[in-house]
TrEMBL record:
One Pfam family here: CBM_4_9
Compositional bias annotation for Polar residues: 321-341
Name the record gives this protein: LTD domain-containing protein
Signal peptide (UniProt feature, chain positions): 1-27
Highest classification ranks of the organism: Bacteria, Candidatus Roizmaniibacteriota
GO MF annotation: an example: hydrolase activity, acting on glycosyl bonds
Length: 427
């Protein structure tokens, strides 16, 4: 009797462990020579400009093993580093990527990027994923992020990047990732309703290349203003509604307070004026801005972080935006002061594309409207004939649940589990 009771107690303990401590199952590391114990074997430079990139294997700085890789990049124009091709990936599969970085002086940026390729193709797919970017002095800081490979991906390329500085990399891993979580529901009726995809707020369009140089691609940069990483599954990049171009489906993971870039395989934006829009998986507008002209090789982007003012600028993909061109300075006033447009901000009720129904009246968007000269208007008013240059939106969620409900549910679940444990022990 004692042995039987003891076995039941152990069974209950194991059951409760998996209830309250969900675990993940991961496969073997896909990166070869991930700790640089064999020098630079299996790794190659990302650029042929050897004058701006210095790669060395060092033993004095290491996270594990006997040495690490030191990357010194002297250019401020772009990031360079080393890469490794991964020949067997599965489309639509989640992967967890880890790596450690150390800096003795602050670089402009140091990070890990994963790029995806289709079978037999040498050009990468538009979707790339980046870790958090380091621009301070750190002592072996962990860079980790979870990504979902595009459905058509057959191979990948892991890249270790540095811009204008020196960084040490070590212990790089890439593994298939499957999250395994046991969820208990007490006295709940069966349901066939599918689990909805998460619908994030605070995701903004920060910059867009709408008129790339010959041979280059259009791209849209997004900014995640949340304090946690987000995965946008089956979202869309679109131009002006009902313009003829189909929305482009995207899936991307963006770290907290970080940028992510979507490169478009085909052009959808008009050089003479268009709208750049971010739609969620249901086709609802999350963020948009409108421009009425463009310059080849320049982007439309925030003049400052989240200030609702867009202007032409030099490209700054995956980094903080550069200054506006032609010496124009951002202004929160609605009076024209130069050849560039200034902006006023107004509030209006939230709406979706014309094909969507209206949302709740308590959900708001904030629009920033830019006008072209020589029109002058007072703050808070916009003449009906002014042309729109830019608009940004931000969602406010009025439907937050009361804070006591999760505590009440957890207490009820614990009481039920206690009753079950007692019954199992003494039955």
């Amino acid at each position: 009797m004692f042995i039987q009771t003891k076995f039941k107690i152990y069974s209950v303990i194991i059951f409760l462990y998996f209830v309250f401590f969900p675990h993940s199952v991961s496969a073997a590391n896909l990166i070869q020579n991930n700790g640089f114990e064999n020098g630079q074997n299996m790794w190659t430079p990302t650029t042929t400009n050897v004058a701006s990139l210095e790669i060395t294997s060092v033993s004095g700085e290491k996270y594990e093993g006997s040495q690490s890789a030191s990357l010194k990049v002297t250019t401020t124009e772009s990031s360079h580093g080393i890469k490794q091709k991964i020949n067997a990936v599965t489309g639509g599969q989640q992967y967890k990527i880890n790596g450690y970085v150390k800096t003795l002086t602050a670089p402009e940026e140091a990070y890990i990027r994963i790029a995806w390729y289709e079978e037999g193709k040498t050009s990468q797919l538009p979707t790339t994923n980046n870790s958090t970017k380091i621009n301070t002095i750190v002592n072996w800081s962990l860079l980790d992020f979870i990504v979902t490979s595009p459905e058509s991906a057959a191979s990948a390329e892991i890249r270790l990047y540095v811009k204008n500085g020196i960084a040490y990399f070590d212990d790089i891993t890439m593994e298939e990732y499957t999250e395994s979580t046991i969820v208990t529901t007490v006295f709940s009726a069966p349901s066939t309703t599918p689990t909805p995809l998460p619908n994030y707020n605070n995701i903004y369009i920060s910059e867009a290349m709408v008129a790339p140089n010959t041979g280059e691609k259009e791209w849209v940069e997004l900014y995640n203003d949340n304090d946690f990483s987000v995965t946008l599954s089956d979202w869309y990049i679109d131009d002006i509604a009902d313009s003829g171009s189909s929305p482009k489906k995207i899936s991307i993971t963006i770290s907290a307070k970080s940028y992510g870039v979507i490169e478009l395989s085909t052009s959808i934006f008009n050089n003479s004026g268009d709208t750049v829009g971010l739609l969620d998986f249901s086709g609802n507008e999350k963020n948009t801005f409108t421009y009425d002209y463009s310059e080849s090789g320049k982007t439309w982007g925030w003049s400052e972080l989240k200030n609702d003012i867009f202007c032409l600028q030099q490209p700054s993909k995956n980094t903080q935006n550069t200054a506006c061109t032609q010496g124009w300075q951002p202004s929160t006033k609605s009076t024209q002061t130069s050849s560039e447009a200034t902006v006023s901000t107004s509030k209006t009720k939230d709406s979706t594309r014309s094909s969507q129904s209206s949302t709740s009246n308590s959900s708001l968007k904030s629009y920033a409207i830019a006008v072209t000269p020589p029109t002058i208007f007072r703050e808070g008013t916009v003449e009906s004939e002014q042309s729109v240059l830019s608009a940004t939106t931000s969602q406010i969620d009025p439907h937050a649940s009361p804070g006591y409900l999760p505590l009440l549910a957890a207490s009820y679940s614990l009481l039920s589990i206690g009753s079950l444990v007692t019954k199992m022990i003494y039955s």
